[in-house]
Design goal:
The structure is a single chain. The protein is mainly alpha-helical. The chain has a domain of 40 residues. 67% of the residues lie in helices and 4% in strands. The protein is built from 8 helices and 2 strands; from the N terminus they run ααααββαααα. α3 packs across α4. The longest helix has 28 residues. The protein is globular. The protein starts with a helix and ends with a helix.
């Protein structure tokens, strides 16, 4: 394997960054006594744009659908989301956000100015910020399919338009 040390370091750095970001979200949700995890929060963020099936959510989250079922069960049990029936296809069970779920998202935006990621990126020059974004996009494109990148981009752009 070529560049094994380089690849291992990139793997470790991406893992540290992801864990730091996830922990910050979990800490904020726990401090706010929400009763949900960052995974459940992510599901709510996706379905705030309209009902989605477990299959679509799993693609956007890049997780196996079986991982999401217990998370959706908890969201439903706590009144943040509900399973619905698709009138055109009885086999489909889209999940939609409730008013309680929307209220929770309004209280907990995706980013805060004091988030570690926000601070770290703001410490970088604008040129380095754009370079990082470009390199991360290239890395993720090489790891996944174009469809997954398109889903991610569409979700982020929809959130930005709502603000």
């Amino acid at each position: 394997m070529k560049n094994k040390t380089l690849i291992r370091e990139i793997q470790a750095l991406v893992s540290i960054a992801a864990k730091t970001i996830r922990n910050a979200i979990d800490d904020r949700l726990e401090a706010g006594d929400t009763g949900i995890t960052s995974l459940q929060y992510g599901i709510l963020r996706i379905i705030q744009h309209g009902p989605e099936t477990i299959t679509v959510i799993s693609k956007k989250q890049m997780l196996d659908p079986s991982t999401l079922v217990p998370a959706v069960d908890t969201l439903e049990r706590n009144g943040f989301a509900r399973r619905t029936k698709d009138p055109k296809d009885r086999r489909r069970t889209p999940i939609e956000i409730t008013e309680k779920g929307l209220a929770l998202l309004a209280r907990f935006p995706m980013l805060y100015e004091d988030d570690a990621l926000v601070k770290a990126v703001n410490e970088m020059s604008e040129a380095h910020q754009q370079q990082l974004l470009s390199l991360m996009r290239e890395l993720v494109r090489n790891l996944t399919s174009e469809d997954e990148i398109d889903l991610l981009t569409t979700t982020i752009q929809a959130e930005a338009q709502e603000k």
